Amino acid sequence: FFFLTSVPALTMSKLGNEQQQFPVVTKQVAGVIGGVPTEVVLSRFENTIMIMATQTQKMGALVRVCKDSPRDPSCRTYSLTYLLGSADELMVDVYAQTLGKIISAKLEVMPPLLVGVSLNSYDSATFKALVALVASKPVW
Protein backbone atom coordinates (compact mmCIF):
# COMPACT_ATOMS: atom_id res chain seq x y z
CA PHE A 1 0.00 0.00 0.00
CA PHE A 2 1.07 3.55 -0.56
CA PHE A 3 0.82 6.00 2.27
CA LEU A 4 0.81 9.54 1.03
CA THR A 5 0.89 12.68 3.05
CA SER A 6 0.35 16.00 1.43
CA VAL A 7 0.01 19.64 2.28
CA PRO A 8 -3.58 20.37 3.38
CA ALA A 9 -5.76 21.72 0.62
CA LEU A 10 -5.50 25.50 0.50
CA THR A 11 -8.15 26.07 -2.13
CA MET A 12 -10.87 23.90 -3.57
CA SER A 13 -12.87 24.49 -6.68
CA LYS A 14 -15.17 22.20 -8.59
CA LEU A 15 -14.32 21.53 -12.25
CA GLY A 16 -16.93 19.24 -13.80
CA ASN A 17 -16.99 16.06 -11.72
CA GLU A 18 -13.45 16.46 -10.40
CA GLN A 19 -12.55 18.44 -7.33
CA GLN A 20 -9.40 20.40 -7.88
CA GLN A 21 -7.12 20.48 -4.86
CA PHE A 22 -4.05 22.58 -4.40
CA PRO A 23 -1.23 21.66 -4.80
CA VAL A 24 -1.59 18.06 -6.05
CA VAL A 25 -4.44 16.10 -7.67
CA THR A 26 -4.14 12.45 -6.60
CA LYS A 27 -6.21 9.41 -7.48
CA GLN A 28 -5.85 5.83 -6.28
CA VAL A 29 -7.13 2.68 -7.90
CA ALA A 30 -6.76 -0.96 -6.91
CA GLY A 31 -7.46 -4.15 -8.77
CA VAL A 32 -6.44 -7.75 -9.07
CA ILE A 33 -4.09 -8.50 -11.96
CA GLY A 34 -3.07 -12.09 -12.55
CA GLY A 35 -4.52 -13.05 -9.17
CA VAL A 36 -2.32 -10.49 -7.37
CA PRO A 37 -3.68 -7.35 -5.63
CA THR A 38 -2.36 -4.31 -7.48
CA GLU A 39 -2.28 -0.72 -6.22
CA VAL A 40 -1.88 2.33 -8.45
CA VAL A 41 -1.46 5.94 -7.34
CA LEU A 42 -1.63 8.72 -9.93
CA SER A 43 -0.64 12.29 -9.06
CA ARG A 44 -0.57 15.45 -11.12
CA PHE A 45 1.78 18.11 -9.87
CA GLU A 46 2.11 21.53 -11.48
CA ASN A 47 4.94 20.37 -13.74
CA THR A 48 5.00 16.55 -13.47
CA ILE A 49 2.71 13.54 -13.61
CA MET A 50 3.58 10.59 -11.36
CA ILE A 51 2.27 7.04 -11.69
CA MET A 52 3.19 4.43 -9.09
CA ALA A 53 2.08 0.82 -9.61
CA THR A 54 2.90 -2.03 -7.24
CA GLN A 55 2.04 -5.61 -6.48
CA THR A 56 4.82 -5.89 -3.90
CA GLN A 57 4.04 -2.88 -1.70
CA LYS A 58 7.37 -1.39 -2.80
CA MET A 59 8.19 1.43 -5.19
CA GLY A 60 10.45 -0.58 -7.49
CA ALA A 61 12.19 1.11 -10.38
CA LEU A 62 11.52 4.83 -10.77
CA VAL A 63 11.82 6.07 -14.35
CA ARG A 64 11.54 9.62 -15.69
CA VAL A 65 9.94 9.82 -19.14
CA CYS A 66 10.31 12.95 -21.26
CA LYS A 67 8.89 13.44 -24.71
CA ASP A 68 11.62 14.42 -27.14
CA SER A 69 11.19 17.17 -29.71
CA PRO A 70 12.18 15.59 -33.03
CA ARG A 71 12.39 17.59 -36.22
CA ASP A 72 9.60 15.47 -37.69
CA PRO A 73 6.45 16.22 -35.62
CA SER A 74 4.86 12.90 -36.66
CA CYS A 75 7.66 11.03 -34.87
CA ARG A 76 7.11 10.38 -31.16
CA THR A 77 10.23 9.53 -29.24
CA TYR A 78 10.81 9.48 -25.50
CA SER A 79 13.88 9.68 -23.29
CA LEU A 80 13.99 7.41 -20.25
CA THR A 81 16.14 8.09 -17.21
CA TYR A 82 16.30 5.64 -14.31
CA LEU A 83 16.23 7.60 -11.05
CA LEU A 84 15.99 4.56 -8.77
CA GLY A 85 16.42 0.87 -9.36
CA SER A 86 17.95 -1.04 -12.18
CA ALA A 87 17.41 -0.91 -15.92
CA ASP A 88 17.62 -4.73 -16.06
CA GLU A 89 13.89 -5.28 -16.66
CA LEU A 90 13.17 -4.31 -20.27
CA MET A 91 9.41 -4.33 -19.66
CA VAL A 92 9.71 -1.38 -17.28
CA ASP A 93 10.92 0.63 -20.30
CA VAL A 94 7.94 -0.61 -22.33
CA TYR A 95 5.48 0.28 -19.54
CA ALA A 96 6.97 3.76 -19.09
CA GLN A 97 7.03 4.56 -22.82
CA THR A 98 3.49 3.27 -23.35
CA LEU A 99 2.15 5.38 -20.49
CA GLY A 100 4.02 8.36 -21.96
CA LYS A 101 2.36 7.78 -25.34
CA ILE A 102 -1.10 7.51 -23.77
CA ILE A 103 -0.66 10.74 -21.80
CA SER A 104 0.96 12.71 -24.63
CA ALA A 105 -1.95 11.79 -26.92
CA LYS A 106 -4.30 13.52 -24.46
CA LEU A 107 -2.19 16.62 -23.78
CA GLU A 108 -0.90 19.32 -26.08
CA VAL A 109 2.34 19.56 -24.10
CA MET A 110 3.34 16.56 -22.01
CA PRO A 111 5.08 17.35 -18.74
CA PRO A 112 7.77 14.98 -17.48
CA LEU A 113 6.32 11.68 -16.28
CA LEU A 114 7.60 9.71 -13.29
CA VAL A 115 6.73 6.01 -13.42
CA GLY A 116 7.36 3.66 -10.51
CA VAL A 117 6.74 -0.03 -11.17
CA SER A 118 7.14 -3.07 -8.92
CA LEU A 119 5.27 -6.10 -10.22
CA ASN A 120 5.45 -9.84 -9.65
CA SER A 121 5.17 -10.47 -13.39
CA TYR A 122 5.94 -8.33 -16.41
CA ASP A 123 4.13 -10.46 -19.00
CA SER A 124 1.81 -9.07 -21.70
CA ALA A 125 -1.43 -9.89 -19.83
CA THR A 126 -0.19 -7.97 -16.77
CA PHE A 127 0.91 -5.13 -19.03
CA LYS A 128 -2.51 -4.78 -20.70
CA ALA A 129 -4.38 -4.99 -17.40
CA LEU A 130 -2.11 -2.41 -15.75
CA VAL A 131 -2.49 0.05 -18.63
CA ALA A 132 -6.29 -0.35 -18.41
CA LEU A 133 -6.17 0.20 -14.64
CA VAL A 134 -4.11 3.38 -15.05
CA ALA A 135 -6.33 4.69 -17.85
CA SER A 136 -9.41 4.21 -15.65
CA LYS A 137 -8.35 7.09 -13.33
CA PRO A 138 -6.57 9.73 -15.42
CA VAL A 139 -5.17 12.81 -13.71
CA TRP A 140 -4.08 14.45 -16.98
The count of β-strands is 8
Number of helices: 2
Major sheet: 6 strands, mixed
- Mean of the pLDDT scores? 82
Lateral strand order in the biggest sheet = 3-4-5-8-6-7
Helix content: 10-25%
Radius of gyration: 15 Å
Task: Give the structural class.
Answer: alpha+beta
Search tags:
single chain; 140 residues; alpha+beta; 6-stranded mixed beta sheet; two-stranded antiparallel ribbon; 37% strand; globular; disordered N terminus
General description of the model:
- The protein is of the alpha+beta class.
- 21% of the residues lie in helices and 37% in strands.
- The protein has helices at 90-106, 124-135; strands at 12-15, 18-21, 25-33, 36-44, 49-54, 61-67, 78-84, 113-118.
- The chain has a six-stranded mixed sheet, with helices on one face.
- The chain is globular, with a radius of gyration of 15 Å.
- The two termini are 23 Å apart.
List the helices and strands and how they pair.
Elements: E1 12-15, E2 18-21, E3 25-33, E4 36-44, E5 49-54, E6 61-67, E7 78-84, H1 90-106, E8 113-118, H2 124-135
Parallel strand pairs: 5-8
Antiparallel strand pairs: 1-2, 3-4, 4-5, 6-7, 6-8
Outline of the structure:
This protein has 140 residues and is α+β, with helices and mostly antiparallel strands. Helices cover 21% and strands 37% of the residues. The chain has a six-stranded mixed beta sheet with strand order 3-4-5-8-6-7, covered by helices on one side.
